[in-house]
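FORM 7B: Structural annotation worksheet

SECTION A. Query
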Amino acid sequence: MFDEDNLVSHAGLVPLLALAERTGLSELLDEHVRFACERVKSGAANPTPKLTSIIAGMACGADSIDDLDVIRAGGMKRLFDGVYAATTLGILLREFTHGHTRQLSAVLRRHLVALTEQTRVLHGITDRCFIDIDSLLRPVYGRAKQGASFGHTKISGKTVLRRGLSPLAVTISTETAAPMLAGVRLRAGRAASSRGAASMVTEALNTAITAGATPQNILIRGDSAYCAGTIVTAIVTAGARFSITIARNPAVDAAIADNRHRITGRLIVRRVLDANTQDPLFPVWRYHPFFTNTTEPVDQADITHRRHAICETVWSDLIDGPWAHQPSGMFTANTAWCILAAICHNLLRAAGTLTDTTRYTVARGATLRTHLINIPARLARPQHHPTLHLPTHWPRAHAWLTLWTAAFTT
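SECTION B. Predicted structure
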């Protein structure tokens, strides 16, 4: 029977939202996200608690607007203030314009800096910092979805045209810390991969520097879509390093063949044996060139460059969570959803570092949700003091209690 009003299905939200308050998320939302006019009367009223409710729902595993109702079940409304219905939260998302999404992006960057200051989420950023930029095509199937258009993507190694939306994201990571999202921008499916990349790289550089990195220790990595003059110029102007793949074309082939060709930086080419080669007497080689201005030895520079693939773990993490769907028909609502998912991603990562457990420091979002957030508890009020009673012999009790202590310790 579903008749228990004091049962809490996601007790891990308590320390998670306490960490959000401790790092000033509500203050940042109050300061930056403001609505001067509304399409629906009172649709954008009280945006801060509503946006926090969306983030809380995403932390529980919600991947659509309807799924946000999970935060209203059982004793959740008694445990938290400002819990809103999913329809109310959907109305708020549809009030967003492009300007409001830029305000929300500012919250994402500033909150990441606050998390870095109060947790070990970017431990080692003062020694070396990696910024990775990448994009993908998220398929959509409704013709009425704003911004949906056909773009190029690869499926099983083959380039195909697919209807969708194209998010562009920038991550910040270190030698020991998992990648954190410093910026997300949703674009039409037909948008070129490098569209808007220069400004996003500049914003990510400023965020990393504010978080404690020095420009000389920052390395920006990207694939061949981002080997553009505007992007490289923005990196060099900031004093950072770059390592970017170069697309194969006749000019690059000539440069590979002529080692006297001089450029600003180094053109490093990795040669690998074609997997389809059958005759060992006449091997076929594949060449993978990339352009860099780092001072590392060639072999180490190649290893460092290939670790750009770490950003793929962020894509899979988000697709397995809030990015499973683009929940609204409005483009700006979906953009706001993507940015809120990035804030939730960073918050979960930070919570994992507070458990004092190496596994959760680099764990996927699905693991963090299962082990730290989606824990049942019974809410009691002895002498009007709320108390959570969690299951006995819970296998992750030590990590959860460590997170609780850290979240409520000022």
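SECTION C. Observations
The first strand starts at residue 7 and ends at 8. Residues 7-407 form one domain.

SECTION D. Sign-off
Analyst initials: ____
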